[in-house]
Write a structure and sequence with these properties.
Elements: H1 12-63, E1 67-71, E2 75-79, E3 83-87, E4 92-94, E5 98-102, E6 111-117, E7 122-128, E8 136-142
Antiparallel strand pairs: 1-2, 1-5, 2-3, 4-6, 6-7, 7-8
Amino acid sequence: MNKTKKIAGFTLLETLIVMSLVGCLVILTISPLKRSYSSLEEKIFWWKMERTWVSQYQNVKQKKQALKIIYYPTRVVFKSDQQVILKYPATLAVFKIQKIQVNSRGHVKPATVIFKSKVNNCYYYVKFQLGYGGCYRIEQKME
């Protein structure tokens, strides 16, 4: 009497089906994670922009030195006695190169810099208003 033992386990077909289902789930979760990450990068950029503006503007008031803010296609540069460079996230695009000048008394000429976000398809308007006191704000408008 020849008895053969049957080994319990998964067949190749069952393993392939499970692996393809897992692969599909992984692919479906990557896109929302990438969007979330890009959105977070933009929020961090705007936070850094705000902090840099406040510190540079206070520096102007304390040291009575002029400040130049230059918006390049890939970065914004704050120039005074110290230079600060902030790179844009890959999802933000500025529409034109623009220079903003703050004189040694803190006076800013009115100007608007427009950014386009690829994450949520909106525009950011960075507005510098005429006057003293560091008049600066960011408005978000949907496309």
